[in-house]
Specification:
Collagenase (Catalytic Domain), alpha/beta, globular, 4-stranded mixed β-sheet, binds zinc ion, 5-stranded mixed β-sheet, about 200 residues, about 20% strand
Length: about 200
């Protein structure tokens, strides 16, 4: 089991360490970091001037299969890796592009749980996008929340009604800022893979 934060080096690399360390603390799981490469942006839509997050995720899944040396644990069988690894290793790409998915004008991030891959972009998480002064600590905070949210989806979690919980789905930056960096009790239980009591059957 592992979580890999794949940090495109066009996103300020100085932020990758604080984000991965805080992310690991919020998830209560180890997070490894890859931050010496550029992952191509796919699916550019010239009318929207944005990138299709689904297309990038499909490419990321293909990349993982073709580059087992980057993500495969040394002691794992290659066939097993290709068939089942998405269940064990989760990859979250941090990319500079402004992202959309076909049903939304924009997304802060997107997860594809079936493939075990997710994506997050700082593009609309940074103050500059809204005409305000840059603020690295606010950006780190938002990247941690958004990354933890997408990884939560990769572990099978749905959206949560609690506006303070990481799994709450924010409609805008204010709602993202209002969230806290924690999983509520219900979401934490699901994240840890235990069965919640009210779902036990006799
Ligand atoms: Zn979500
Ligand atoms: Zn929750």
């Amino acid at each position: 089991m592992g979580i890999h934060l794949f940090w495109d080096s066009r996103v300020p690399v100085g932020l990758s360490r604080p984000v991965s360390e805080e992310l690991s603390a919020v998830l209560e799981m180890p997070v490894s970091r890859i931050d010496d490469g550029i992952f191509p942006l796919e699916g550019f839509d010239p009318v929207r001037n944005q990138y299709d997050a689904v297309k990038i995720l499909l490419k990321l899944d293909m990349f993982r299969r073709r580059m087992p040396q980057i993500f495969k644990p040394a002691d794992m069988d290659l066939d097993f890796y290709n068939k089942f690894n998405h269940l064990h290793e989760k990859i979250l790409l941090v990319t500079p592009g402004d992202l959309f998915e076909p049903l939304a004008d924009f997304v802060f991030g997107l997860a594809y749980p079936k493939l075990g891959v997710g994506i997050v972009s700082p593009h609309r998480l940074q103050n500059e996008f809204y005409g305000k002064y840059a603020d690295d600590s606010a950006l780190i905070d938002r990247l941690v929340k958004e990354s933890a949210h997408e990884i939560g989806h990769l572990f099978g979690l749905d959206h949560c009604d609690n506006p303070g919980c990481i799994m709450y789905c924010p409609r805008n930056l204010d709602e993202l800022d209002r969230k806290r960096k924690y999983f509520c009790g219900n979401c934490r239980v699901r994240l840890n893979g235990d069965t919640p009591e009210d779902e036990l059957f006799s």
